[in-house]
Amino acid sequence: MASQESLVFADESELDNTLSAPQPWKILIVDDEKDVHESTTLAIGRELICDRALEFLHAYDAAEARRLLSNEQHIAVVLLDVVMESEDAGLQLVHFIREELGLLETRIILRTGQPGYAPELNTISRYDINDYKSKSDLTRIKLYTALTAAIRAYAQIRTLNGSRRSHAEIIRASKELLCQRNYHDFASTVITQLAKLLRLPEEGLACIKQGNRDLSHRSDLLVMGTAGDFRRYTCKPLTSLASSHITELVFESARTRDHLFTSDATCLYFSTPDNAEMVVYLSAGSPKNREINALLDLFATNISACIDNVRLLEQRHEYAFLDQLLNIPNRLSFLQALERQLSHPPDAQQVVLIDIDQFGALNDTIGSQNGDLLLKQIAARLQKSFREHIVARISGDTFGILGDAEKLTPEQVSQVFSRPFEIADSPHLLSATQGRVLLGDQTNAADVIAQANVALKRAKQTLRGGFQDFHQNMLAETENRVQMLQGLRRAFEQKRLFMVYQPKIALESEAVCGFEALMRWRTEKGTYVSPMDFIPVAESSGLIVPLGEWALREALTRITALREQSGMDLHIAVNVSMVQFAHPDFLNMLDTALHDCNADPSCLDLEITESFAMHDQSSVQALVGAIHKRGVRISIDDFGTGFSSLSYLEALKVHSLKIDKSFVDRIGAEHPDTRICEMILRLGQALELSVVAEGIETQEQMAWLQTQGCDQGQGYHFSRPLTVDQLSDWFAAHRAAIQTREKDK
Ligand code: C2E
Ligand code: MG
Ligand code: MG
Questions:
Q1: Most distant CA pair in the chain: distance in Å?
Q2: CA distance 297 to 291
């Protein structure tokens, strides 16, 4: 390989390029006398000076000399006649060489036939003239001596200038390299700087060794830096290159740990004392010579220092951009990758956020150390399945994947969770919920993550284990929800929420047997927001917990008062949402509310929805059991809309089923369909559960339900939900109606 020694500059005998055939020194003879040309070449034409032959160029007047000087390169010495077509033609030519052409390295020996025309002393020093000789003085030996001295001076000046130029270029290149903060940019800069130094086109690629393997390991050699047409191979395996010729050259250079020069390619090998290795391929040939080798040696020394610098920066970067537990990119890194994609959008790119379902609960059960192991397994599986994508940990148990949308389908993600994970020798089957967003006209990465998050939240609300694609109107919906939540909080604080009570009627006697408490929100503008809209917002924000407690206390206070006033055994049904019910303090809250409101537990009926009752069966069953023990009843609301398991329903200690309004609507409809109502009624009878029909709006519906033996009914046919103020009037009217009916019987 290129050694680490600093650049040893070529000595005078090796100045001009290739080692194999040293170029002769070019000597330009300018003289209007043909004889002088002949005698000069005759005298010293066959001599070697500093181990090199001499090549003569001939000009017979100043004009010809000018043309030759302008076109020929590397003229070492000009033997110049002072007097030619004019007395100072030679001196004018000197002016032309130094001032106009700027040729400062070429040595000039003035020769004159007429000693009287000697130049002024200041001309000699001003134009850097090596020698002034009278032609008659120039014997063969004197000519040889004068030329040797001039050529030596020329060579030394060239060497000095060459090394100054190389130094300046290396310093400039090194400055560039030191500015690079990661391997990719560093490797790309090495290519361009090397191309500049070697005067080659900026086309090529570079591989850097990372880790302990050496570069000749073909399988994991990555293209780290690229330039020109090779850009598309950045970060791809070297073997993905279309040309195996290039791959072989790089491998060969890595294997032999040396530079390779061919007619159409240059492969340069660098290594550092710390065993970092790098191969740079440039797609043009360059001559192999000592000068280039020396330049590369000096460059190698600088590369070594710069690689160390980049390595430190990469380490710092790794620390900041790598998830320390899972050893995969972290959120910051994901955002950066995303930002890069947005600035150079390739075809259809997708971002998927993956949230592990119930991970918090699982973590509590298996312990956080096992939880960490589980996350590691998940990360490893995701990385394996999505090799070509970027897999990162976004937060706790949320992962992000970025890449080609076609290869990132919901099914492919779900597939990762199809087999159980092994923790402490026991299998754990997990599911994950996905929020997905396609990259399009988003302008920043944080927006994309926010969009994916909106989709993920939505997916979690609707279907755990499923997925949701983001679409624009979700943002407006989210905005509305945020505003609604703020309004609801304010309304709750300012006591603008209140409860209404819808009577429940015992269908056989048509007498009131209780009420369902329903929440109402009157806005500052005096309009009402439906609980169908605000309850889900309260649920998703957790506000439902204090809200629900307040509703329960209101309802218990009201029913206790009504029972006292009427002396009747009235019940109160209170809706309880899933979030409240699952709250660890629920039972405690229930007990305190009953106690504080001085309420009889047997007058309370908690309504839970069918989908929730069937949700997490074992924990719901335990809770329902505990509530049942307190004498509090449980009803299953909106029954018929979920997917109840009948055996489970049988085991659950519930008191009644409420037939959803949508089925009651079908009784007495234009195309009546009473099958589901009949089925629920029969089920209730079989399981000895009371059945309540909700949403009864017509006499016909009521009559049909009565004939079918439905226990209770509720609906606009009897009464709309009533405010506290309306309640006593309604109560009085209802009792009067019942009494009249009794009398009529
Ligand atoms: P839900 O528990 O099924 O309540 C029955 C809904 O049907 C009530 O709507 C009621 O006003 C309406 N309704 C009763 N009879 C009729 C009728 O004959 N025709 C029609 N068209 N509608 C009738 P509301 O009050 O708008 O409540 C909607 C849902 O909001 C409730 O459904 C319940 O799930 C929820 N909700 C209401 N208040 C609360 C509360 O305090 N806590 C919780 N967690 N949820 C509540
Ligand atoms: Mg209800
Ligand atoms: Mg209902």
A1: 161
A2: 10
Q: For 521-571, how does the pLDDT look when each residue is reduced to its tens digit (9 = 90+)?
A: 999 899 999 999 999 899 888 899 999 999 999 999 999 999 999 999 999
- CA 538 to ligand 1: nearest atom: 44
pLDDT digits (tens, 9 = 90+) for 706-738: 999 999 999 999 999 999 999 989 988 998 988
CA nearest neighbour of 659 among 675, 682, 689, 680:
680
pLDDT confidence bin for 210, thresholds 50/70/90: low
Tell me the CA–centroid distance for residue 286 and ligand 2, in Å.
85
Looking at per-residue confidence, does 586 or 120 come out higher?
A: 586
Strands 266-271 and 277-282, bridge-based pairing: antiparallel
Q: Strand 421-423 and strand 266-271: pairing? A: unpaired
Distance 610 CA to ligand 2 centre (A): 11
Nearest CA to ligand 1 atom 2: 575
* CA 82 to mean position of chain CA atoms: 75
* Closest ligand 1 atom to 500 CA: 25
Alpha-helix runs per DSSP H in 100-180:
121-126, 140-178
- Give me 132's structure tokens: 């002034």
pTM of the complete model = 0.54
Task: Look at residues 615, 622, 619 and name the one whose alpha carbon lies nearest to residue 636.
Answer: 615
Q: Measuring CA to CA, how many Å separate 250 from each of 184, 279, 298, 318, 623?
A: 18, 7, 21, 28, 69
Pocket of ligand 1 (CB under 6 A): 502, 518-519, 530-532, 535, 548, 551, 575-577, 607, 637-638, 661, 694-695, 697, 714-716, 721
The DSSP bridge pattern shows strands 107-112 and 75-81 to be parallel
Residue type, 342: L
Task: Look at residue 336 in the predicted model and tell me its pLDDT.
Answer: 87
How many Cβ atoms are within 10 Å of 151's Cβ, its own excluded?
20
On whether the CB atoms of residues 290 and 14 are closer than 8 A, the answer is: yes
Name the residue with tokens 């312990």: 367
Question: What distance in angstroms lies between residue 122's CA and the mean position of ligand 2's atoms?
Answer: 114
Residues with CB under 5 A from ligand 3 (ion): 637-638
> Which of 518, 529, 658 has most ligand 1 atoms within 8 Å of its beta carbon, as the pocket-test mutant?
518
Which ligand sits nearest to residue 517's alpha carbon? 1
pLDDT at residue 218 is higher than 90: no
User: In this structure, are residues 737 and 505 in contact, taking their beta carbons and an 8 Å threshold?
Assistant: no
Instruction: Please give the radius of gyration of the chain, using alpha carbons only, rounded to the nearest integer.
Output: 47
User: What tens digit of pLDDT does each residue of 467-506 get?
Assistant: 999 998 988 888 888 899 999 999 999 999 999 999 999 9
Q: What is the tally of helices (H) and strands (E) in the chain?
A: 25, 26
Residues 6 or more apart in contact with residue 368 via CB below 8 angstroms:
none
Mutate to test the pocket of ligand 1, among 575, 578, 696 (most ligand atoms within 8 A of CB): 575
Give the whole-angstrom CA distance, residue 442 versus residue 461. 25
Q: How far are the Cα atoms of 541, 581, 619 from residue 584, in angstroms, in the given order?
A: 16, 8, 11
The residue among 332, 331, 341 whose CA lies nearest residue 443 is: 341
As to burial, measured by CB atoms within 10 angstroms (0-12 exposed, 13-18 middle, 19+ buried), residue 530 is exposed
- CA-nearest residue for atom 8, ligand 1, is 518
In this structure, the residue with its CA closest to atom 7 of ligand 1 is 695
